[in-house]
UniProtKB/TrEMBL annotation:
InterPro entries: Class_I_gatase-like (IPR029062), PRibForGlyAmidine_synth_PurQ (IPR010075). Pathway: Purine metabolism; IMP biosynthesis via de novo pathway; 5-amino-1-(5-phospho-D-ribosyl)imidazole from N(2)-formyl-N(1)-(5-phospho-D-ribosyl)glycinamide: step 1/2. PANTHER family: PHOSPHORIBOSYLFORMYLGLYCINAMIDINE SYNTHASE SUBUNIT PURQ (PTHR47552:SF1). GO terms for molecular function: glutaminase activity; phosphoribosylformylglycinamidine synthase activity. Keywords: ATP-binding, Cytoplasm, Glutamine amidotransferase, Hydrolase, Ligase, Nucleotide-binding, Purine biosynthesis. Gene3D superfamilies: 3.40.50.880. This is Phosphoribosylformylglycinamidine synthase subunit PurQ. SUPFAM superfamilies: Class I glutamine amidotransferase-like. It is found in: Cytoplasm. It catalyses: N(2)-formyl-N(1)-(5-phospho-beta-D-ribosyl)glycinamide + L-glutamine + ATP + H2O = 2-formamido-N(1)-(5-O-phospho-beta-D-ribosyl)acetamidine + L-glutamate + ADP + phosphate + H(+); L-glutamine + H2O = L-glutamate + NH4(+).
Amino acid sequence: MKAAVITFPGSNCDRDLAVALDRAGAQVTRVWHKHDALPDGTDLVAVPGGFSFGDYLRCGAIAAQSPIAGALRKHANRGGYVLGVCNGFQVLTELGLLPGALMRNTGLTFLCKPAVLNVVTTDSDFTAGYGKGQRITIPVAHHDGNYQIMAEGLARLQDGDRIAFTYAPGINGSVGDIAGVLSENRRVLGMMPHPERAADPALGGTDGAALFRSLVNGVVNA
């Protein structure tokens, strides 16, 4: 699997994401945000966490206007895989690749701690390595992780089995305690928790590693 990890000014989890994908067996290329094309043969685009462009305006809003954003949108629209983590999730909502919006945490504080998640669906290449209903621990580090969506949109997510993860218990005010959602074709995942920070025993946990292994195996066998 060929993966491209995008770096914006202010990204700080791009290397971590690249390492996690590499260890899962992907061939990883780092892509600067000013590039206007992805490497040939890219299967997955990974949009990392951090504070792209200092989180000015809205988190991810400026990054969504970068030259690479057009190539990212085309990749997703033709059925390519996309993973957006934390700030990357915010970028994907700003691009319209995922529904909803990420708002300020209800406690108005930055959250940085391990979070317990429920695996809501295993019907995706991102989550197939887990068990439905399994509880995993993945770190969070966000100030604007409060996922909000209108009632009609929430119903579509629920009816389409597109909620990937929920917090157990809720931590930031997200509607339905949602921590991650999938696109209609199930090839785009946005999530606020950081699986790349839980993919090595030396980092204190490995619950995130299954996501990367599952994704690489799913893409290879697609």
